[in-house]
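# step 3/5: fold
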Amino acid sequence: MKKSYYILLLFLGFFGSGCKTFVTQQTFGNAPQLTEFTLSNTVKLATPTLDESSGLEYSKGKLWTLNDSGNGPQLFSVNPATGAVLQTITLEGATNVDWEDLAADDHYLYIADTGNNVSGARTDLKIYKLKLDDIPMRGDATIPAHNIEVIPFFYPEQGESPTPTAIQNNTAYDCEAIYVRNDTIHLFTKDWTSAYDGYGTSEYLLPNVSRAGNGKYPAIFFKRYDHINCMVTGVDYSDKINEVIVIGYQNGGLWTHYVRIYSGFQGNDLLTGSVYSKNLGSLNQVEAICFGNNPYTGYISNEKVAVIKSVSIPASLKSFTVSYKK
């Protein structure tokens, strides 16, 4: 009986049951006051090609996604109106150990091979970096290995040979969310160990420069964000209005999701501006978020979720809008 009730709640969440949402906001200085974050227009992503969609980025008029661990080293351009794949880009010589997010600036696309949940002890964490100009406007293509830059790194708190955790999903050094601003790559951890303390994430910084040979960059700890109500699974930055959007979920239960939007902040410190937070209810393991062609619209995606042996919830793409007080 309990299992049936749980399945029913999952389906209610997927089809938009109208469950209660809770919004909080703190505004400092002249930061804009966001009034609403709204989800709409759910479409199924192409199956099985995008069953494990785990990153999103909108760049140069295209919406890009990728799959996470165990899949090929490929990027997919997606039609946001239908969920269909428009273009497949393969990275020669790259390995999808655990790709988790995408980011972009004016000239490059960045792939975060930063997933680290199995034991928290990966020694091959990296960011792949490829020129947007190397991606054709249409048609599938392979990017040659010599055109792909690599930014390898480690967490100094762990050292370059970290000790594995005794159980899976019990590390503070998993990462599924990055964005790029100026000459810096920002990483936000998915801290599995914070589940019993209000949830939190640590922000680390990396130089936006590839590294030849076997050397690795130490990821520099910048700031801790506690009591954010979720494990972070996606982030994006809009340079148009200096805004960062974060999404994540609570571990287990009904997969309660939260979105947080930081705007009007000074430097890299997100807490010097306006902070908007909203409980989105159950959305079935959302793995990615990105702004669209402007900072007032965007997309989130969830991967395919198995409910019971013969029942699953498909990978899907949702649109969102944000609005501000005039």
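# step 4/5: annotate
The first helix runs from residue 2 to 14.
# step 5/5: archive (pending)
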